[in-house]
Amino acid sequence: MTSRKLLSEAKLWLVAIPILLWTLIPIYHIFLFSISSKDSAFSGALWPDKPTLRNFGTVFRQEHFYLHHFWSQIWNSLWIALAVGAITLAVATCAAFAISRLKVRGGRTVMNAALFTYFIPAAFLAVPMYKAMGAYGLLNSRWSLVLAMVTLASPYAIWVLKQASDKLPWELDEAARIDGATPLQLFRLVYLPLMLPSLVAIGTYAVLLAWNEYLYAFLLLSHENTIPLAVGLGHFLASDDSPWEILMATALIYALPPAAIYYAFRRYMVGGLTAGAVKS
Amino acid sequence: MSSIVLPGVQPASPVKPPRKGLTTWQTWGLILIAPYLLVFAVFVLYPVTYGLWLARNPATYLRLFEDPVFFRTVVNTILFLLIAVNLKFLLALYLSGFFVHEKRWIRWLSVIFIIPWAVPAIPTIFSIRFMLNPEWGLVNSLIFRFTALDGPNWLTNPQLAMAMAMLVHIWKALPFWTLILMAGRLAIPKELYEAASVDGASGWQKFRYVTWPSIRTLYLTSTLLSLIWTLGDFNSVYLLTGGQPADQTHVLATLGIRYIRLDQVDQAMATIVVALPFVLPMVYFMMKRLSVDDQQETA
User: Fold this and answer.
1) How many domains does chain A have?
2) Which residues of A touch B23 (CB under 8 A)?
3) Looking at beta carbons, which residues of chain A come within 8 Å of B138?
4) Which CATH class is domain B67-298?
5) Residue A89 needs a FRET pair 20 to 30 A away by CA distance; which of A26, A39, A54, A136 works?
6) Where are the domains of chain B?
7) ipTM value > 0.90
8) Binary contact (A280, B221; C-beta < 8 A)
9) Model confidence pLDDT, tens digit, residues A64-120
């Protein structure tokens, strides 16, 4: 009996080890480069002879040609991500409340318009969006990226919030109405507190989406002072002889905050978002 | 937020709001929905209409079809969709069966497994890009260490480069779809498996007669959705190969952006319009599915 148990356990490990390697090697490779000197990084070693933190010092002190705007790029990334999170939350919560609780006329049509935006491949929408931003005179302003990301994040946000708010007991609304509450009071005093967990999830989703975005950022922003860190990282590939060890140190700094946030809110993200993603 | 498979545990259907005061409530509804309508009109409706108008000239399409890069791109895109999406879903189907095992260490493994999905695309794709560098990359130096042979030029051979882009795509998106299929498997009542065991069903028979019928719809819908989204996967190709060598590794998503960079916006739009006959039916189908589900929930 025990040998059979051992056998089934061994079978599981036979699957687990390839999964671990497949998942972690590209991640480990980033870490490896970020603590290696240039020579050691380019030698294909699996562990540097002398691990060093010098690359991070170079990044923080902006001591490389590609890094002259590192801190302002981080600031842009943060500013854009937080603005997208706040605006998406505001727009989507209001829309979900109007559709789900106030049963506004035409709500279904609006929901369909949002779903259409959600399903259209983002890279396809990028081309007309780029042209339109040019027409609005917003190119190279951080607002262009903020508004573009709000456009991309809201549909899913509205969808998830509408699903969550459909589940709230209708008796609450009735009680509030009988007590003579106005729609705004219902929204502020009943709806928002009950929706808090979903709001946290959606805010996180929008912030991460904006921080991680590359395509729209590099299309809409090209001026040194407005680009976020994602675009700054892309600049490293402009020449053949890139300082990959410094690039990887910067990339690690860029990847850590969203990963930390993702894991901190994983409970909300998994329960609230992944399931909703393919509700069909 | 219930998933596809979970049978609706919805509360009783909401009653129609009372007629009295309907107008105030409707007015507030319109005010609250206005911001999103504005966003949609200004950043979706107008750009799309404007873009379609830009792409109205048949000459643009003739020029596009004469571009040798375009033909190559269409072939690449079709292969990318067929191979990468199906491989990804077969793997996700298999791995979802692995991750539903109720063991503590497997739960921890699933936390690690989600990393590619949790981190942004650029760092990891750049990391893989350097791993595949023919001279200094980790992959070829390991090949050399074990076989004393030079590894292939992963990213300068167009076929290999496309294959690597597919692997990058799978690496990034696999955890997400595994989670989705896992949710589907977890929703299957355990009694069904117990009954199958009592009847002496083999592992394959359990999959064939219990698991698959329960998650088939989820699997197919997810595949469809992933097809649409993979069509818009710009990062996996652009950040890995940049369309090189000689613009032979483009997909539609990166080709459109390439035309923008060359200041040929109408040609960029035409590239997208060409794909619309395939994309729009799929989008329509997905919207239909969600709407039907929605009605069942609230009706």
Assistant:
1) 2
2) none
3) 25, 29, 44, 46
4) mainly alpha
5) A136
6) 16-54, 67-298
7) no
8) yes
9) 777 778 888 999 999 999 999 999 999 999 999 999 888 888 888 899 899 889 888
